[in-house]
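Page 37, top half.
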Amino acid sequence: MTSDSLSALRSEATYRDTMISAVIHTIHLALIHSHVRSLLTRVATCTHVVTADLGIMLGPGFPVDYSLQLGVRNDSRKWMEHTARRARMYPWEYALGDKAYVGCPEFLTEFKNFGTLSAEQRNWNDTLQFFRGRNEHLVAAVKDGRKALSTTWRGSFAGLAAVLRVVMHMVALEERMLGPRYDCFGPWPVCPNSIVQRYAH
């Protein structure tokens, strides 16, 4: 790979400012365990469960990704089966997740507590929870004041997906217009050249 190609790759990573420190955490949007009625307009009695998740940049707290999924699969399975989303992450990127994502190769998670955590492991868990909690602020921004996302939905899946798409784009625009929620520094490259070169093929 030429130096120009490496430079372009690094520039793309910097521009995307993607999920190297994104917090991926399932947001329930009050949709999880909520029933979405009339998924098919011709089947008025059909009820389904829909879940959504949200990814944000750890530093400024900007939303960068979300998905709406049908069914009650656990979080780790939803992530592992979402191949298109996983493919968007660079090899050097990691996400922060709760214990539901243990075993997902792209995630840094808490240590499970079976009564034998060391002081270092407890400190790791506290630190991870502190930064992962930033996602909850965005969850509130998405849900609050929007009955479509906090009560039982009685329309089509397409309608719900359209509502969520509009809400997510407006929340993302608002967050970027207001500026970062948290202290952050930079701009710096998302990834140093040495790491880019290690994974460049």
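Page 37, bottom half:
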Amino acid sequence: MLDRSRRLRLNDADENKAASKIMNRTHIKYADLNSRQKENYNAAKLGAVLANFGYFTMWLNDDYNGADLIALREGEEPMMIQLKSRPAIGKRYENKGLFMAFPVARNWCVIEHDLLQGVFAEFGHLKTKSWVERGRYAIGKPSRELVARLEPYCL
């Protein structure tokens, strides 16, 4: 058993040691991140939002049937999610039951791909050169109308 003075000295030493390992609290700038860092950042942000609804997420090191991550909630089927930095669709994601997740208007939108594709069709986006020739389409800055249409799927 250590005497009181020895315990105090150890505690002081522990505090000094801990003080030298303070977490860096400098906020990052999203625009300064590379694509892989942005994907990791977005996955962490989405995971935090989904946790508010009882889901936990598992990151997949390699896409599995188009999914970047799986969201699980007890008593429900797993949600296979493709993470995007903006609203996007692709023919390679069709008919897989895959959800698309992306930030929009300071929220996260989680919507089944084929449903999102239908929303894009309503706005004429399936007639674009990108969709017709390359089988993919993404919107960098969605219109207010599209944001309003996606609102029921935002968290």
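Margin note: The chain has a mean pLDDT of 89.
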